[in-house]
Amino acid sequence: MANWGFIGTIHRGIYRATGGRVGARLAGLDMLLLTTTGRKSGEPRTQPLACFAEGENWIVVASNNGQDKHPAWFLNLEAKPEAQIQIGRADRAVQAHVAEGEERERLWPWLKERNPAYAGYERKTERRIPVVVLRPVA
Questions:
Q1: pTM, two decimal places
Q2: Which CATH number goes with the domain that contains 9?
C-alpha cells in the first residue's frame, strides 16, 4: 500500500522548489498546493491536491482515496475556511465553502467526468464525499 503522507511530502517539496514547473500536473490532472491552518495545532499545513478551475474558483474534492473518514485538510477548512493556494508560482488567498444543493448536484458529475477515480471512491465509502469551492479573496 502506498504511503500517501510520504508521497505528498515529496510532491509538495518538488512543486515548491520548481515553482510548479514540476508537479503542477500529475496523472493528467492539474494540481495545487492548499495551505490550511491546523485545527488543533494552529500551524500551517500544506497538501497537494487535484484541482479543477471553474471561472475564478478552484474546486477540490475531499475524497481521501475513498476512505471512510474525511481528510485532515478538509477538517482544517471546516474549522477555518480561510486558506492559501499555490498554483504554479502564484500564491492566492481563498475562502472555502462546501458545495451543497444545486451547486453540488451540478459539480459532482462534472468532477467525476474529469477524474473517473472519484466514482470509484464514491462506491468505496459510505460517506458523502465533500466538494470544496475555493474562492479567491482580495
A1: 0.89
A2: 2.30.110.10
Phi, psi of 24 (to 5 degrees): -75, -15
Domains identified in the chain, total number = 1
CA distance linking residue 59 with residue 16, whole number of Å: 20
Measured over the CA atoms of residue 63, residue 65, residue 70 and residue 72, the dihedral's sign is negative
Within 10 angstroms of residue 19's Cβ, the number of other Cβ atoms is 13
**b (16+ CB within 10 A) / e for 58-90:** bbbbbbbeeeeebbbbbebbbeebebbbbbbee
pLDDT digits (tens, 9 = 90+) for 3-14: 556 666 667 666
Q: Report whether 82 contacts 39 (CB < 8 A).
A: no
